[in-house]
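Journal club side-thread
Mid-discussion, someone asked how the predicted structure for our own chain would compare to the paper's figures. Pasting it here so we can look after the session.
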Amino acid sequence: MNLSHRITHITPGGSDGWEVFYKSRQMIADGVDVVELTIGEHDIRTDPIILDAMHAAAKGGHTGYAMVPGIVALRDKVAARLQAQSGIPTTRDNILITPGGQAALFAAHLACCNEGDVALICDPYYATYPGTVRGIGATPRPVICTPENNFQPQKADILAASEGATSILINTPNNPTGVVYDAATVRGIAEAATHADLWVISDEVYDSQVWKGAHISPRSLPDMADRTLIVGSMSKSHAMTGSRVGWVAGPVQAIEHLTNLATHTTYGVAGYIQDAALFALNQGPAFEAEIGAPFKRRRALAKSVINGQNVVKMINSDGAMYLMLDIRATGLSATDFAYGLLHAHHIAVMPGDSFGQAAAGHIRVAMTIEDTKFTQALETLCTFAANQIP
């Protein structure tokens, strides 16, 4: 029996870009002490007060079917959050609660793309983006975002790639680069989307982790609310990665159809999980700042290390939990550099090539280990790089 072309071609050739990560995990399984700077997972767990709220909700009986679009109180809270950020009137009818941000990305593309359509993605991109597009039967087309432009997508490049496209997926603050799109970039995205009649799918899961500048959603720009779908999540802002609760925000008609999709696929999110998410959001911005504080602090530590040498350069990583480091001066490809560092010093990083072609010659470092160990790993990385100079 044959499996469908759609499911077998989510990752053509079988590679999903995470080979270095898999190698490091195998080394760990074999008893090797590896410093992992690979995955975007907090080095803290979900706060016990959130887990207590989740436990109380479950013990209180919220374990049956929850409303498919999400419980009213959580949708109201998410709507209020987005309205405060964007200034755009937002109600519960604009919100669908989903089983995490990845499910929201998949649903958003199903809403915007027919089978065979082209969906634009900004390169470099989070590793699942191309597979998500292929999974709904569309074709991903990269918009190259170069290091010379600080990895920010340019209006002209979007327009050049837009023929036959129906959507563009953006991500700010950005994974993998840590770049926060500035006002000119977001305005250019909006102008290009309007000119080319594109939906904008805006992945904003790192909206609470901005270390310099400000998060600007394309939904906040004039006439963009009707062509923008926002993807959000509790995973990064509240260290609730395993709880799998996120949302899609958009025009009422789109949310109605997406709710119908959820009825026929996920059938919603567990009620006690939603209660915990509501409790977490009600802790306010100070709580989110506390969750993000280690990454802001480690960014400053990294800048100090990088400024002390002249081989490795750091991209202006102004948000999220990642650094993008330029290692082109070594003459090594990003993959060779990553494998060399892993074998020589048991430090695991992600090659930029894992996230598309634009970040070739760069590596992504996740700021997700304890401060001292993080600083030491970066110092070793820089020494290793210096030793590779031809």
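Post-session note: The mean pLDDT is 96.
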